[in-house]
Amino acid sequence: MRRFLKGFAAFAAIVLLSCAAAAPAAAEQPEDNRLGRYIVVLDERADLLGSTLRRLQSMTGLKIGHVYDKGLRGYSATMPKGLVKKLLADPQVKYVEPDQKGTGNGQFFPWGINRVQADLSYTKAGNGSGTVTGVNAYVIDSGVAPHPDLNVVKRLNFTEEPDTDCHGHGTHISGTIAARDNTSGVVGVAPGIPITSLKVLDCETHGWYSDMIAAINWITANAKKPAVANMSIGGNPSKALDDAIRRSAASGVVYGLSAGNKSKSACEQSPARAGAGTNNGIITVAAIGSGDREASFSNYGPCVDLWAPGVDIKSTGNSGGIGPMSGTSMAAPHVTGAAALYLSRHRTVTPSSVESWLKRAAVSPGTKSKDGRTIRLVCVKAVT
């Protein structure tokens, strides 16, 4: 699914570069020719596929990877570091940032489904008659393996890896969102809804931000509404990744994001910070464990919108069975599923309205987050 231009070369890994004030130049320095991976974001008026692209291709040493022509506009590229300054001098270039790697934030009722009261929602999950229709889920992750409990309708691969879920992360998340109510296996929050898998992570659940942006832009351009997307991935801050998600939510897609597993402020990670301070349909989710206490590993802070179960969550496995995982990765799909359940009954509402309803319907179990805020647990019992 990657859109490559002729001459694409092997990528070289880079680390996040900090900005420093420029010192007065005593003498002209040789151009830095070390290759790196970058994300170049263009002005909305840039003729992406015309003169702008031809001019960029003419630059010696620049190899273009993904072309972002929907949602976030720009491209990913491998190029010498010395070219970055030249690109920034172009009035059609808004900003350039290093590409980075993010990572996955790692028939009976799983305890999380019971705790968010999905078993008491209108689906009456567990009796074999609770299939949800009229809404679509998009899972940006490690892929989704074939599984009898999952209704996977499409698989897209934005990586150089085989299109399989060799880790199990994406398959597990998909089950929490939408495992079928078929009297066997497990049951998801929104049983049976169609899932589109967008693979951006490898077997170690690592993946490049440039691939993630390509997947997000695909959703922006192609999602069948009403739609929800889950992204249980986290890493260093990235304006480009955050901007891509904001544009996608503005197009009408509700996003469930994991807060991260570093036991620090979620505002220090992307994409967890993407919806900070707004009510825009981007919902960042922290994890609780036993006793409704915030999980020791869970990120916290003002960028967290809701909490959901994230410890020892049993769901669909990549070998066709069932297995447990823990992490805010497991918390986020409870909220994504809840959003899907709401949209299945209220198909014309905006992502902002979905987020508002989820926050109003949330309950307080009487516990506190690490920053002192009262935990607000997602609850879907009220969906009618």
From TrEMBL:
Active-site feature positions: D141, H169, S329
Gene3D superfamilies: Peptidase S8 propeptide/proteinase inhibitor I9, Peptidase S8/S53 domain
Signal sequence interval, chain numbering: 1-27
Domain Peptidase S8/S53: residue ranges: 139-367
Gene Ontology MF annotations: serine-type endopeptidase activity
GO biological processes: proteolysis
Domain Inhibitor I9 positions: 52-101
PROSITE patterns hit by this protein: PROKAR_LIPOPROTEIN, SUBTILASE, SUBTILASE_ASP, SUBTILASE_HIS, SUBTILASE_SER
InterPro entries: PCSK9_ProteinaseK-like, Peptidase_S8/S53_dom, Peptidase_S8/S53_dom_sf, Peptidase_S8_Asp-AS, Peptidase_S8_His-AS, Peptidase_S8_Ser-AS, Peptidase_S8_subtilisin-like, Peptidase_S8_subtilisin-rel
Keywords of the record: Hydrolase, Protease, Serine protease, Signal
GO cellular component annotations of the record: extracellular space
UniProt superkingdom: Bacteria
Family label: Belongs to the peptidase S8 family.
Record-given protein name: Subtilisin family serine protease
Source organism of this protein record: Microlunatus parietis
